[in-house]
């Protein structure tokens, strides 16, 4: 029996036995639906964090700054800034009504006019670490805006105000300059909504799309190989032996099956990007690159088929290796949140993530990402091929390796 006939039989068996294929698609889809539902419910249940502001300066500039930050749409979604006195702020902090206090010192405006950097003091509550960290994250983004305003004031002070005698520095002039730098900078916006302040360089929508695509492809292949392994019994292997079907031929036939199945699933994932509202047009280049990721997953599955013979052990190894590699490759959690040493290790899942991310963002593709992924896919397939050959030599049943000795 030829390898081509075996490959067609593998594909026909996959189609004629639709239960494993259906379950391999249905189970990941249900898992993704459950995770999405949990995420939506958690997003709806997140309360707005109330932050107390103690303004001891009480000048026009500080009031304008507080009003500017309070009216910022990005801050209003998660924070409510309330101006209170010191005693009331301490009471709210002690009772747990606020996770943080922003303290504006009395000399903030005067130091700002003199070109000095006076930091705002932020007190966070350790009993509410999640809310406190959220406040610190948003204020760190807001501090960039304040630092830019401070730099503008320093420039005006060094180039203009510094040379004017003290008695000629009109209060109105200084107030106008500071007000202009606070409000006109970035067109009265403290945050640039076109840039991602934290998390991932591509935006959360594209990250979610790529993460779901890679995870679904891998889990579909994992479940399908586990379910189909039960159909190939020992009796069936003996029947294949009777027709002189070697382990090498079986490995090539199964590799072809994984190649076709993963390529079709990758093509479906490419067109499924419409549901994430990240791409309005699916190009041929996008489909080919998604198929390239599917080929890598197919080579990974084929490699484990050739190296590990026991189905349950193979499934466990696929599960552990795949999930660890995806976690370390930034597929689920953006690499910005991972330890720095993780980025120094090359990861094929990280390359797959970067490949999908670039094509969805319409960015130029680098051969430094594509070439290693192709090479690793070939190496994985060849490693599985060597495993099949080694297993065939150990069994020494088919005349594939013994015919030359018998002829001598």
The ordered string of helix (H) and strand (E) elements is HHEHHEHEHEHHHHHHHHHHH
Quick check: average pLDDT?
A: 77
Supply the number of structural domains. 2
Please provide the count of β strands.
4
Show unreliable segments: 184-199, 398-408
User: What order do the strands of the largest sheet run in, or round the barrel if closed?
Assistant: 2-1-3-4
- How does the major sheet shape up? 4 strands, mixed
- N- and C-termini, Cα separation: 26 Å
Kindly estimate the percentage of residues that lie in beta strands according to DSSP: 5-15%
What structural class is derived from the secondary structure elements?
mainly alpha
Question: Which of globular, elongated, flat, extended, rod-shaped describes the shape?
Answer: elongated
Radius of gyration equals 31 Å
Number of helices: 17
Specify the helix fraction band. Answer: 55-70%
Summarize the structure.
The chain is mainly alpha-helical. It contains 17 helices and four strands. The longest helix is centred in the middle third of the chain and has 31 residues, at 129-159.
